[in-house]
Amino acid sequence: MARLLIVDDETSIRNVLRQLFEYEGHEVGMAASGREALGSLEEGPVDAVFLDVKMPGEDGLDILAEIRERHPGTQVVMISGHGTIDTAVEATRRGAFDFLQKPLDTDRLLLTLRNVLDRRGLEASVEALRSEVESHHEIIGRSPAIRSVLERIERVAPTDARVLITGENGTGKELVARALHRRSRRSDRPFVEVNCAAIPSELIESELFGHMKGSFTGAVQDRPGTFEQADGGTLFLDEIGDMSLAAQAKVLRALEEGKVMRVGGQRVHDVDVRVIAATNKDLPREIEESRFREDLFYRLNVVPVHVPPLRERREDIPLLVRHFTNQMANRERIPTRSFTEGAVDLLARRDWPGNVRELRNTVERLLILSAGDTVTEADVMLLTVGGGAVSGLNLDGLGHMTFQEFRDQAERAFLLQRLRDHEWNVSETARSIDMPRSNLYKKIERFGLTREE
Questions:
Q1: What is the pairing mode between strands 303-306 and 163-166?
Q2: Are 164 and 303 a contacting pair, CB within 8 Å?
C-alpha cells in the first residue's frame, strides 16, 4: 500500500482519482491548492503526488519545484488539461516523474503509479545496499588510539592532500582510505583500489596506466588504467612498498605532471586523481636499502596516518565483537547471538597478530561452530586454540586426535585454568563459568584435576 496525494482545484477530478487509487488499496489524501499540498506533505511522508499544472494561485510547476526541494524523495506526476510539449519538458526539467494529459486514462494512470512505486522500491534497495556497504567499511572504536585516527581523517579528508597510511596487516588501512574518500569532495566519484603486491611487476604498469591493443601479448583491446578509471575520484595504492622501482618512477611522474600515457600509446591523458597509499613496510628502511624511491616517499607522505594494531587498543575489542556479530546476523539472515562477558574478556586478552581481520574471522567461526544460544568462554577456549588462547593444552600430535579427544583436552585445560584463576575455590569457579557446582565436581573427578598441577 502506498500513500498518495491528489492536488487539483477541481473536486470531480480529485474524487475520481481518489476512488480509483483507493480501489487499488492505496491511502489517498487530497488538496485543492499547491499551498495546501505543501502543508499536507509536512504532516508525513507521501510516496507520490499527482499535481495539476493549472490551478488558482501558484502554478503547479512552481509547487513542483518546492516539493522537489523540500521532499526530494517524493515522486511527482504532473497532470494537465492544456498540456504542451514545452510544459512537459519544463516539468521534466524541474524533476517531475511523468506528465499526463487530461482526460486521464485509467490504464495509463495505474501504469504510471506502478512505475513510481517500482522506482521507490529500487531507491530503497539502493539505499539499503549503500548502508550495508558503509556498515561493512565502518571504523569501529572509542579508544584514544583510534579516536586520534578518526580526528585526522576528519581534518584531512576535505582536502586533496595525499595521505600515506601505515600499519600492520589486518589493522584496517583500507577502511581509513575509504573513509577519507567518503568524507571528501570526491565522494560521488570513483574509488579505485590497486593492490600493488598482488599484481606481477611486468603487469603493474599496464594496470596503472592502461595499454593499447597489440602493445604486448594478451593486449587484445585498448584498456584504460586505474589512473584514468579514478579520474575525478580517489586512487588507493595498497601495499605501495611492494611496487617495483620502475613502476615507482612512472607513478612519481604521474603525480608530478597529472598526466599518464598508456603502454604502447602516443596520446597523453590528463587525470585529476587524489592518491592515497598504504603499506605495512618501514619505508624509510626500504629507502636506505634502495628498494623504495625517496622522492616518491615524500610525494606520498604529505599527511601520514598510522593505524594502531589491535593489541594497542584492546578496549575496542568488545565493540568490534558486537559489530561483527550484528554484521554476520544481517548478512546471513540469522538471529543475533551474544557473547558472554567472560568470552569477550578472553578475546580481549589475546594479542591478535592478525589484528582486526583475525578477530573478525574468529568471531564468525565462533558464531558458526558454537552450539548454544550464546558464545561462552568454553567455546572461545575450544575453538580458538590455534591462536594460543589456551594454556595447558598439548597440541603435539593434533593430527592423530579424534574430535572427542581434542574436545576433552581443551575442556580440561579450560577448567584447570579457571580453577587456578579462582585459587581452587570451586563455588566461585562454578559461578564464573555458569556451571552447577555439582557438575564441576564431576568434571574435576573425571579429568583428574588436582591443585598440585
A1: parallel
A2: yes
Concatenating the DSSP letter of every residue in 250-297 gives HHHHHHHHSEEE-BT---EEE---EEEEEESS-HHHHHHTTSS-HHHH
Q: What are phi and psi of 102, to 5 degrees?
A: -80, 150
Below-50 pLDDT ranges, the chain:
125-135, 386-397, 453
pLDDT of residue 91: 83
Q: CA dist 148 to 305, 316, 317, Å?
A: 9, 14, 17
DSSP 242: G
Domains in the chain with CATH codes: 3-133 (3.40.50.2300), 144-308 (3.40.50.300), 312-447 (1.10.8.60)
**Cβ atoms of 343 and 360 closer than 8 Å:** no
Q: Are 247 and 205 in contact (CB under 8 A)?
A: yes
pLDDT at 44: 82
Q: Which three cell numbers stand for residue 399?
A: 593430527
User: Under DSSP, is residue 396 helix (H, G, I), strand (E, B) or coil?
Assistant: coil
Closest CA to 194 of 123, 155, 243, 130: 243
Alpha-carbon span 404 to 247, nearest angstrom: 54
Query: What radius of gyration, in Å, describes the C-alpha atoms of the chain?
Result: 31
Specify whether the backbone of 211 is left (phi greater than 0), alpha (psi in -120 to 50) or beta: beta
